[in-house]
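ok so I'm stuck.
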Amino acid sequence: MRFDESRRLRERAHAMIPGGAHTYAKGDDQYPEDAPGFIVRGAGAHVWDVDGNSFVEYGMGLRAVTLGHGYAPVVDAVMRALPHGSNFTRPAAIEVEAAERLLGLVGRHDGAMVKFAKHGSDATTAAVKLARAHTGRDMVAICTDHPFFSTDDWFIGATPMPGGVPGTVRALTAGFRYNDVSSVSEVFAAHPGRIAAIVMEAETTTAPAPGFLAAVRRLCDEHGALLVIDETLTGFRWHDRGAQAVHDVTGDLAVYGKAMGNGFAISALVGRPDVMELGGLRHDRERVFLLSTTHGAETHALAAAIAVMDVYAAEPVIETLYRQGARLAAGVTEAAARHGVSDHFGVLGRDCNLIYYTKDASGERSQPFRTLFLQELITGGIIAPSFSISFAHTDADVDRTIEVVDAALGVYAKALDAGSVDGLLRGRPVAPVFRPYN
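replied:
not stuck anymore, here's the structure
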């Protein structure tokens, strides 16, 4: 497998684009040196790079492409919308239809309202702004065990990569631990009367402990804070109505994105009408400038979202994600056991959204061992920064993946026996996105 054109393009990209890519998670530092640098097309669960190499892909556009690349019903809906214009000086009629469809799908029966945007970051930041306006408070508390909420300062300032975020802004974000009710209580106690919102996912790779989410809901109510549930990843994947439906918890505000457009740029903020209306016209309180963007309601993106919702209503999408993810998890787990590396490599999370962990010979999480595993997967024609499955992954795709994982873990076992990836890893290891220095 050769990557000659990728290497040439990489030099041009880094000369013009900071980091060489417009999304950090897609950058060169996240992949082995022998990796496809640039993708030119995708179909279903397969992609092709500029050098003509083909791969089965997981992660699928940072988990935004749940139905598959180029999924015909979604593409057809977008193509029908495009000839009629994508943006006008007044709202498009499709905005009302899309709002009704989304509110019906997520099962909000409290008169909930919705605003569309392009990215999950836009919507979570809007939720924070609304919470501050509604409560008259300035601080937010985030779950520090959840990896990402926004590109904006209120979140980035709390990461190990806070460059450019003023200290006064950083001080307005506090943290708590998942499945640790006492840490949530401590946040409220440490900042009495200042927490406007708790921002968290209902679940990521770890399931909520019994009673944890109910306790968070209760603490928010007791302290007058809003509960913001980020469904950017879990919506359209855990359940048709998201992780809130799975765990019987309802956020005052909830954010959806990624899979709701199957790769087209669309997100949504959904929430209580008394809070959401602060960004509207039917109230006498101070106005909130809420999600007003030029491209926030492009007709083709809304058409894509409606088409996605049509597919979810007609096809067993969620069931397929769980079924195929379970097949993949079982095969990977068996391969790890066969090579005697189960204590050092495995999968985590729900079958619909698996990740894997890589540990070195001492049992510590290891970026060099992660790189080695990625390298061997790519050599076998698999791109898998995670094992996030899609509706497009066939039995043959999963079976092929398990075969490649089996071979990769054979190399992994050799590295564990040697106590190092030296001599097996070609090039430098990958690095965390959130790091203060290169």
